[in-house]
Design a protein that fits this description.
It contains twelve helices and eight strands. A hairpin with a 2-residue loop joins β1 and β2. It has one domain. It is 49% helix and 12% strand. With 277 residues, it is an alpha/beta fold. α1 crosses α5, α2 packs across α12 and α11 runs antiparallel to α12. A six-stranded parallel sheet has the order 4-3-8-7-5-6, sandwiched between helices. Strands 1-2 form a two-stranded antiparallel sheet.
């Protein structure tokens, strides 16, 4: 698996759930079966309470689910050990319904970023963001001040050569521990963001660590999300593919087609399970 095969991962930590969301088993993951508002409110309450150690949140979409099939077992087990796993994408929700384990709705990383950052801005809660590129710090700080005034921000823009376990990974950890934020957004893309989050989880003086990919770019207006009707219709993938075809064709065409096979395998398991009862 590209970007993961050469990685060494640490053993997944024990689950730290402070809020016991109901979950359903899907594609080898225990995905939280909750509505968005319930998830966002519970997570912010966790951050407001100063919960420690840090809780790691991942939001798997079709791309993640397919890539996990090719990942080393150590990485997959680590990913499964996230404290909260939410379905980021309508295809995952539709699949849950076909499999008879319905999720009420999707809970996207992009939406969680906005909801939690808005609440942090209103409450004056410190937030750390890991993402962007070197040299963008001033521009990003100005954008955060404009969109989320009143939110104390620690911003770290690592290089393209970011090694989650290397010097920049350690610097990110140290900046967080100096700020002691309620919320950390890691916007590096899979698998770097997850690898960093799980490697340092037990050493972070923070409440929540959300692995949310391009969420910062959407929240600050650097990239446009699909219109709401396309999001609700499950067509956000098409919008993103049309917006960045050269970068995203592999994700949405190649891996998207593989997801159909993955779903077919899960449906066969379902039928065998019912036949054996």
């Amino acid at each position: 698996m590209e970007g993961i095969s050469a990685m060494q991962t640490q053993a997944a930590p024990a689950r730290l759930n402070a809020t016991a969301f109901p979950t359903v088993p899907l594609f080898g993951l225990d995905i939280c079966a909750v509505r968005f508002d319930e998830a966002a409110d519970a997570l912010f309450a966790c951050a407001s309470a100063g919960a420690r150690p840090a809780r790691v949140i991942v939001t798997p979409n079709v791309d993640h689910l397919v890539r996990l099939q090719d990942a080393p077992a150590e990485f997959t087990e680590t990913y499964r050990g996230a404290d909260y796993i939410f379905a980021d994408g309508m295809p995952v929700v539709w699949a849950s319904r076909l499999l008879g384990r319905p999720l009420p709705e999707r809970v996207t990383g992009a939406d969680l970023f906005v909801a939690l950052a808005q609440q942090a801005s209103q409450a004056g809660m410190p937030v750390t963001v890991i993402g962007g590129m070197p040299g963008q710090e001033e521009m990003l700080r100005a954008a955060f001040t404009r969109v989320y005034p009143g939110m104390p921000l620690e911003l770290f823009c690592p290089s393209m050569q970011f090694d989650p376990l290397g010097a920049e990974g350690i610097e990110a950890r140290d900046r967080i521990n100096r700020q002691r934020p309620g919320i950390v957004f890691v916007c590096l893309g899979m698998p770097k963001q997850e690898r960093w989050a799980f490697a340092w989880q037990q050493q972070l003086d923070a409440s929540l660590v959300l692995c949310v990919g391009a969420a910062m770019d959407f929240a600050l207006g650097f990239k446009r999300r699909a219109p709401l009707w396309m999001q609700k219709a499950g067509l956000e993938w098409f919008w993103r593919l049309a917006s960045e075809p050269h970068r995203l064709w592999r994700r949405y065409i190649m891996r998207g087609s593989r997801f159909v096979g993955l779903l077919a395998r899960e449906l066969r398991k379902n039928r065998k399970g019912k036949a054996g009862r």
